[in-house]
C-alpha cells in the first residue's frame, strides 16, 4: 500500500507491504541507515526514533502506522550544519566506543533534555534504561548527556550564528 | 530478521469506524494499539492475524484520563508513560504509578497502551494485577453498543479475554472511595523485565479496621489475578503487622506458580506471600496518610 511519512521534515511516499517495520522502511527504503537495527525484540533500543515527538523503538512499529505522521531520526539532529549539543556531547566526552547504540542513545537523550533540561545522573540512567551499550560505556554516555545539558541548544545555536562569518571558536 | 506473515492493514479514524472495520474484516482481525505485545508475537509467527485495525489515531476518543463523578476513567489507548505521568492517577491510585515505574522501559512505555496490555492477557502482566486489586471495570464496545465487565471477569485464561470478535476494549473505570491506599510491589530479574512475581494491594480503613481490601497477583497463577481468600481474611480485622503477614501467607497458599527460567515454584510462592504483605503495608501507610 502507498504511504507518505514525513521524515526529518521531508515527505516520502513509498509503496510498502503492511508488514514492513519502520526501522527497515527508514534504512532500506529511504537509505537513512543512521537508525540501527539490533535485537529486533524491542529490548536493545538502537532503533529508537521519534514518532510524533516521542521516542519509540522502530523495530516494533509498522511503517504503515507512521503514515501521515512525523518521524525524526538521528540524521535530523544536525541543523544547518550545526551538530546538536547531544552530538557534540557524545563527541566531546567519548560517549561512544563501537557506536552501534549511539543513534538510539542520542535520540532518547535529546528528548530527555527537551523535557528535563538539567537531569540528574539517576534521571539520565533511567531514561536510557531501555537501551543497551554492549561496550558497557555507560559512564561516558551519562557524561555526554551532562555535557549537552550544560551546553543547551540555544546557547550552541547562538554561538554558531555569531561565529558563522567569523573565526571558528576555540 | 523477524518478518511477520502477510496481513491486511486498515487505519481507523473513529471508534465507530474501528468497529465497522472489525465487522468487515472478520474474526481473524485484531486491534493494533501500541503493538508492543502483538507485533513481537507476529514477528515470531505466534500470532498471524489476517488483518489489523490500527486504532492509534483514536487518541481523542480512547486516550483520555479523567475523573467522572466518583470514577477514575482511563482510556484504553492511554500509553503507559501517560498513566505514570498522570497526577490525578497518582492522587487516587498510587498503585498505578508504582506498577508503571517497573513496567518495561521508558521508550516502550511511550508506545505500549493500557488496553493493549490487558487484552494481551499475558499471565505475567503487571497491570492485570493492579486493575484486579482496585476492582476496576472494563468497558467493551461492539456492533451492538457497549457493555461493562468487572475486571475479574475480563480475563478468561492465558492470552484470552471476554473481548469477542468485532469488539474492542475502550476504557477502564475505577471507583474512587475515600479512606483508602494502594501500592504495588514487584520482583524482577533485571530492570524492565516481566515479574518473577508481583502483588498489588488496595485497602480501605474504617478507623483501624479494614473495611475493604483488594489484592492482585501476577505471574504466580492466581485465579483472576487476585488473592480473594486473603482479601476475605482481612475484612473487618485491624490492619496489624500480624494480620497483613497472615494475608500474605494465605495469598501464597492459594496461588499456583509454575517453574520456569524466572525461578522455581517455592521461590515464586514465597515472593507472592512476601510481596502481598509488603504491598498491604504500603497501602495501609498510604491510607493512613503516612506515605505518599
Search tags:
heterodimer; A: 170 residues; alpha+beta; Ubiquitin-like (UB roll); DNA polymerase, domain 1; 5-stranded mixed β-sheet; disordered C terminus; B: 292 residues; Uridine Diphospho-n-acetylenolpyruvylglucosamine Reductase, domain 2; Uridine Diphospho-n-acetylenolpyruvylglucosamine Reductase, domain 3; Enolase-like, domain 1; 3 domains; 12 helices
Molecular structure report:
Chain A is of the alpha+beta class and 170 residues long. Chain A has a five-stranded mixed sheet, with helices on one face. Chain A is 35% helix and 14% strand. Residues 160-170 of chain A have low confidence and may be disordered. Chain A has six helices and five strands; from the N terminus they run ββαβββααααα. Chain A folds into two domains: 2-75, Roll (Ubiquitin-like (UB roll)), CATH 3.10.20.30; 85-161, DNA polymerase, domain 1 (Orthogonal Bundle), CATH 1.10.150. In chain A, strand 1 (2-7) and strand 2 (10-15) form a beta hairpin. Chain B has helices spanning 15-25, 38-43, 59-62, 80-85, 87-92, 94-101, 106-111, 114-120, 126-133, 228-234, 241-254, 265-287; strands at residues 8-11, 29-32, 51-54, 65-68, 71-75, 137-142, 145-150, 155-157, 160-161, 168-175, 180-188, 195-206, 209-218. In chain B, helix 10 runs antiparallel to helix 11 (241-254). Chain B has three domains: 8-54, Uridine Diphospho-n-acetylenolpyruvylglucosamine Reductase, domain 2 (2-Layer Sandwich); 65-175, 2-Layer Sandwich (Uridine Diphospho-n-acetylenolpyruvylglucosamine Reductase, domain 3), CATH 3.30.465; 180-287, CO dehydrogenase flavoprotein, C-terminal domain (Enolase-like, domain 1, 2-Layer Sandwich). In chain B, strand 6 (137-142) and strand 7 (145-150) form a beta hairpin. Chain B has twelve helices and 13 strands. Chain B has 292 residues and is α+β, with helices and mostly antiparallel strands. Chain B starts with 7 loop residues before the first strand and ends in a 5-residue tail after the last helix. Helix content of chain B is 36%, strand content 26%. Chain B is globular and about 55 Å long. Chain A binds chain B through residues 1, 17-19, 21, 40-42, 45, 48, 51, 54-57, 60-62, 64-65, 67-68, 108, 126-127, 129-131, and chain B through 1-9, 11, 32, 35-36, 39-40, 42-43, 52, 54, 56-57, 104-108, 110-111, 191-192.
